[in-house]
Amino acid sequence: MSKVLLDVRDMAVQFGGVRAVDGLTFRVHEGEVLSVIGPNGAGKTSAFNCITGFYKPSAGSVTFGGVRVTGRRPAVIAASGIARTFQNLRLFGDLTVLDNVRAGMHVRIRQNFLDAMLHTPRYWRGEDAATAEAHRWLDFVGMEHDRTAPIRNLPYGEQRRVEIARALAREPRMLLLDEPAAGLNHGEKARLLDLMRRIAGLGIAVVLIEHDMGLVMEVSERIVVLSHGKEIAEGTPAAVRSDPAVIEAYLGAEDEEAHVEAERIAAETGPGGTTEVQR
Ligand SMILES: Nc1ncnc2c1ncn2[C@@H]1O[C@H](COP(=O)(O)OP(=O)(O)OP(=O)(O)O)[C@@H](O)[C@H]1O
C-alpha cells in the first residue's frame, strides 16, 4: 500500500449536546479513492468540515502529509494540499467559467501586490499562465460549454464539473468531494465515475461522501462507514456491503425515518385521521 497522506485520529465534533463525530479514526493513502458513507446525519459532512478547518474538532488530531493541521484555518489547510467541493455549489454565479477556475488558483500564483496594482509584464505573464492552466483543467474535467459565459447560465451538471476543475486547479494532493453525484443524471454519473478514476490516476487521493451506492461500490478502493458519529465498519466494497453492522445501521435509519414520517402524518391527520401510513 502506498504512503499515508491523511491520518485522522480520535476526532470528535460537538454541537451543544450533539456529538456529530465521535472518536473517528481513519487514514487515506496517496492516490486512493476512499468513500465515507452512512445514513443521513451520521456525521460525514461534519468530519469533512473538521479536516478542512471549517469546524474545530473538540478532540483528536488531523495530520496531512506528516504535518499536524488540527484546528488550522481553512486557507492554511487548503494551501497544504487539501481541496474540496461542497454539497451545495459554491461558485461565483456572475463570473465566467474561466474566472471561476482562475479564482481557485490565486493562492499559488506568484505575483506581488505591486505587480497586481501596476499590471507589470510579470502580472500579464501570470495571468496568461493562469488562463492556460484553467483551460487545461476544464479540458480535463470535460467541460464543453462556452467558457466565457457566466457560470450561472450552465446546466447544473456542468457547474458541478467546473467546481471540480476549480478544486483541481489548486493542485491538491487530496480532493474531498461532498455528494458530487447529487442531482446528476445517469450519463453524468458515469462521466463523474470516469473523472474520479482519472483524478486518482494523477496521484491525487479522492475522498468521497456519496449516497449513490452504485457509484460508491464501483469507484472506491476502501469505504469507511459512519453511524451516529462513530465508525462502524471499514474495508473493501465487498466486505462493507455484506457487513451486518452496516446493513443494520441503514435499516435502523430507515426505521427511524419511517417512524418520524408516521408521527408527522399522525400529527397532521389527528386522532381518527384517514391517512394510511405505508410501511
Ligand atoms: N453546524 C451545526 N450545528 C449544529 N448541529 C449540526 C451542525 N452541523 C451538523 N450538525 C448535526 O450533526 C449531526 C451530523 O450531521 P452531518 O451533516 O455531519 O451528517 P451527514 O452524515 O453529513 O448527513 P447527510 O448525509 O444528511 O448530509 C446531525 O445530527 C446534524 O444535525
How large is the count of helical segments?
10
* Associated small molecules: adenosine-5'-triphosphate
Tally of DSSP β-strands: 10
Instruction: State the helicity in percent bands.
Output: 40-55%
What order do the SSEs take from the amino end to the carboxyl end, as H and E?
EEEHEEHEHHHHEHEHEEHH
Q: What is the C-alpha radius of gyration, as a whole number of Å?
A: 21 Å
Features of this protein?
279 residues, four-stranded antiparallel beta sheet, disordered C terminus, six-stranded mixed beta sheet, binds adenosine-5'-triphosphate, globular, alpha/beta, 2 domains, Rossmann fold
Structural write-up:
42% of the residues lie in helices and 22% in strands. The protein contains ten helices and ten strands. The chain has a six-stranded mixed β-sheet with strand order 6-7-8-3-9-10, with helices on both faces. Strands 2-1-4-5 form a four-stranded antiparallel β-sheet, with helices on one face. The protein binds adenosine-5'-triphosphate (ATP). Adenosine-5'-triphosphate binds at residues 15, 18, 20, 38, 40-46.
